[in-house]
Amino acid sequence: MNFFPFKYLMSRVFSNILENTLSNNNECRILMYHSLCASIDMNKNRYGIYQMGESSFKEQMSFLVKSKNNYFSSLYEWNKNPKNLIITFDDGYLDTLLIAAPILMEHKIPFSVFISPGLIESNNKKYMCKQDLIELSKMDGCIIGSHGYSHFQLTKCNDKLLKSELINSKHWLEDTLSIPVDTMSYPHGMVDQRVRDFVCEADYKIAVSSRPGGNSKNKDSLCLNRTDIWSIDNLKTFNQKVNGYWDWMEWIN
Length: 253
What we know:
The chain is an alpha/beta fold. The protein contains 8 helices and 8 strands; from the N terminus they run H-E-H-E-E-H-E-H-H-E-H-E-H-E-E-H.
């Protein structure tokens, strides 16, 4: 769904209504971020919703830390507590290392970063290089996962290419970082039953999509939902998303 300003405004109005009529849900919440550099030119990123400023991210993390209702968790412990809150980043932008990681480590918040090796090898300066990625992988609380090798939409890949994207990404990351890699994020958030089954065969244990919603303890660990956080979210909207009042978007996507 394309969120033009008017649609976004109406979405906020509807979420305000839900906040005043529904009780807070009690499911694990996985937050999804991309870049924290507002000046980055990101393709297909109309209105810059995936380019959050550093100050906004700091404000959001400080807000979460001050709240007594949140329990920060690593992705591996997603189903241990229904109030778990998990921070994730997609793609491997350099600002994940330079901006996000120091803020998260300061607050002792664990986080996951999903990497497409093809982007790391692209020599595009907005992404990390190999040495940057190695440095990030050694930081306390950081889990490195796969994001497909080439960032292709996996649901559009034939079986041969799908298998290659999953296995080559896993092996490249494990060989580069000398760590096991068994978590992943579906590129473009897209997954169907065929892709999910290939992910299982490739020996991934946890995989996240971009489908809105929380995650009950019985949720399929290879089809976990995530809550998309945008640069245009103010603190009230951010709090609503964390508490599940934007989960209705699942029914219109």
